[in-house]
Amino acid sequence: MTDAADPFFEAYHRDDIAYGETPAPGVQSIIDLSTAAEAGKLKALDLGAGAGRDSISLARAGYTVTAVDLSEMGLERINQRATAAGVGERVTTQAADVRNFDFEAEKYDAIIATTVLDHIPAADAVVVWQKIVRSLTSHGLLAVEVHSSEDPGSDLPPGCNSTAPKSETTGAVVNYFPPNQLAQWATETSANLRILRYEERLEWDYTHGPEHMHGKVSLLAIRKENSPEWYGQPRLFPRRES
Ligand SMILES: C[S@@+](CC[C@H](N)C(=O)[O-])C[C@H]1O[C@@H](n2cnc3c(N)ncnc32)[C@H](O)[C@@H]1O
Question: Between 1.20.120.140, 2.60.120.260, 3.40.50.150, 3.30.2400.10, what CATH number should domain 9-223 receive?
Answer without folding.
Answer: 3.40.50.150
